[in-house]
Specification:
The protein contains 1 helix and 2 strands. The protein is α+β, with helices and mostly antiparallel strands. The chain has a domain at 17-52.
Length: 54
């Protein structure tokens, strides 16, 4: 089983990582991050929605 908690870009040192507010999967952001955190997939989907609504 693979560990999906490791950051893809190395932005956070080591866990724990914040949960995505949409799908609850671990994000690339540390738990101490303020505001709504999104995983890379949800972040991309939100960017697509914003681009199409403009």
């Amino acid at each position: 089983m693979t560990d999906h908690r490791a950051p893809a870009t190395g932005t956070a040192a080591e866990g724990p990582f914040a949960e995505c507010v949409l799908c609850r999967k671990p994000t690339e952001h540390p738990e101490s991050t303020k505001g709504a955190t999104l995983c890379p997939v949800c972040e991309w989907q939100e960017a697509q929605r914003a681009a199409c609504s403009g």
